[in-house]
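Purpose: get a first structural picture of the assembly so the mutagenesis plan has something to point at.
Setup: two entries, given in the order below. No constraints added.
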Amino acid sequence: MTPSSINRRKFIKTTSAAGLGLSLMSYPSILFGKDDRKVKIALIGLGLRGRDHLSLLLRRNDVEVVAISDIDREALKLSQKMISESGKSAVKEFTGSDTAYLDMLHEKDIDGVVISTPWLWHTRMAVDCMKAGKYAGVEVSAANTLEECWDLVNTHEETGVPVMILENVCYRRDVMAILQMVREGLFGELTHLECGYEHDLREVKFNNGTQPYGGGVEFGDKGFSEASWRTEHSIHRNGDIYPTHGIGPVAEYLNINRGNRFDYLTSTATKAKGLHKYIVDQAGEDHPNAKVNFKLGDIITTVIKTVNGESITVQHDTNSPRPYSLGFRVQGTNGLWMNLNDSIYIEHKSKPHRWESDKAYMEKYDHPLWKKYGKEAESAGHGGMDFFVIHAFVESIKNQAPTPLDAYDAAAWSAITPLSEQSIAGGSEPIFFPDFTRGRWMKRKPVFALDDSY
Amino acid sequence: MTPSSINRRKFIKTTSAAGLGLSLMSYPSILFGKDDRKVKIALIGLGLRGRDHLSLLLRRNDVEVVAISDIDREALKLSQKMISESGKSAVKEFTGSDTAYLDMLHEKDIDGVVISTPWLWHTRMAVDCMKAGKYAGVEVSAANTLEECWDLVNTHEETGVPVMILENVCYRRDVMAILQMVREGLFGELTHLECGYEHDLREVKFNNGTQPYGGGVEFGDKGFSEASWRTEHSIHRNGDIYPTHGIGPVAEYLNINRGNRFDYLTSTATKAKGLHKYIVDQAGEDHPNAKVNFKLGDIITTVIKTVNGESITVQHDTNSPRPYSLGFRVQGTNGLWMNLNDSIYIEHKSKPHRWESDKAYMEKYDHPLWKKYGKEAESAGHGGMDFFVIHAFVESIKNQAPTPLDAYDAAAWSAITPLSEQSIAGGSEPIFFPDFTRGRWMKRKPVFALDDSY
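Result (structure tokens, whole complex):
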């Protein structure tokens, strides 16, 4: 990556202003006027998640998928098949080494890159994209360590190139309807929020080496798909290693980095029992993996305090048998919404002291984006939210504008992982968040999903 | 209170062994053989809560209410009316000063005393009862400060007289059924529990000075019933000031003080908005109470870690509009129960990844106490749980045995209040629990609700 390889088109210089605190609102929405050319997207990582994104990109008339990179040739083959089946010609492949993607980033005719690789590659690839002048769309979490959080922010500010954390749950239909309710003041002044990633991942962390989910207790070299890389985080780390599906929506409700900020957190881990038990239950005490010492507590509970005085509980619960939930709670001085029982209570609207189904509220406050694109989104599969996150990424590029979720969001949300590890290691001691905006959170304005554009 | 006034009957010397770590199980169930004499109960505090207890006591054939004490003569009058209506003769009254109850404790013919006074009187009255050789049954919370927690424990150990924290929720039907499920291992090894006191108390904290609930924004000298004393805790304290309805049941699930122990906690408070808003909404900015600065955060979130590696989330949420909930969650390596959606998930029993109604489980695991006394309990009002807590107190006296909830429970549960205040004041710093058992938690065995006796 030489300086000369950095794309120095006008938009890059202009968007660097975004790094200095200007909001989307103060930003010309389209710098170059209407532009009919297609947005040229490349992808790094074509596993199950990468191919989800590929599928969405191939459906769009305003996108041209121009290149793909993965070390897994089978994944590339399956991707080319999808491309061909969508009526398009094969695209250039970059493979053969862990750094083959860098050669792809040298290509001039790429506007943005979607990164869906194992966690430890996210930040370095996003940083390389920005340095190459390409919009970076990076899967969650965006960073593994505090240093990586800063890498995202500093590279964004140095290059002026946007990086978007592809947090799809921010676009979930109910989550966006609640955002409308929050913005209209239905809950009053917010006080306490809850969220989490409560998902039994035992069949993701372990499989038989040939199928992605379950059927065995293998992981690492003997595992397939996510089990080949994700499980090691449960062995070596004790913290909330996957915070963004919960905290992303909550951060939008609370205008984090835009008038508000995470101040500090405490984290508490339970004992680690679930993964060992699963191995023993499935394969017996004598299976070599029954000797593995998993460090990740079964349930991690993190409590964040914001500088504006709200508290947020974030849970990580992936090693136990349980139904899926993101456990949202949104509470303010006028009432609250609970995700678990799909119920809401609003003073003077709901019957006193009685829960009310949230159904009518969800319909009434349906977000303009969902009203406009809901049909298209749902037909694209995955409940629709993936459509919107890719839509936002593509539209941001098309408009040569900042992305609605940005480097500061990526850093602040992903920072929960290393900070929670530090808190747990220190007996739940409070740990302060770095201010990734370097004070500019005081002036930055909300930009996420303000209308029906993206 | 002179040493000579202490009742030195044999049972007192024997029960002092309980203070030395002997459990109910190792204890002769009836020291004096069958005894047909009635248990003689006195009451201190005859407000709304005290009269609830009086009503239950008057229904019992094995109890004689022998004396009542309150500074409020109207409360005594209403109580005597209840006594008379139950077909009994008027009882001795002790009134006229804050310490009139001490004269009552000098009476020889009292076996136990039920204390239902404002919080700041709980510990000193319970201590005085124990010193007078009378079983103390004290309403929740049992103590306001750490020193008071130690007062309960030390006085119990010095006198050998039992003190029971009258935590009725330990006896709620669903709570006891869950206890049976926990004991039978349905949830596997427990890992994470949640509970709380989520109760919109704004109409308890404020009233018009003549009715107990609402109708105005007065408190303190101008308030009536609980508003006259409870509200001041919301002005001066920032912590979980009412933890026991949630933590009591959870402590039984986790065998706290009996093989397990609270290790440390962190607490986080939101901003304090609800009470001020309520005053302004009801009475306008110009009402003098609109100037009151409430210190109590609207939502207090406490996370406790136990020495056996479980975590417990405890919430205090009394200043905001919301439906009532104690927010129980009981989770282990085999599954979990959630109170909010009345649902359960047990691996290999429930359909994979799907919540199941807890109804059939509640029926199947109905506690023997409820099977035996359920009808009687429910006809006594208050959902039945008050019946059982009074039943246990009376039966403990009848059997001259330790109470199933004891001084160590009262201390450990009530300690959450001062410890959470300290944590919040220190920016959510972790605070260790004192070991009120002085190490004997390692040997003490569970005693709560082991069968259908009490």
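Chain B touches chain A through 50 residues (CB under 8 Å).
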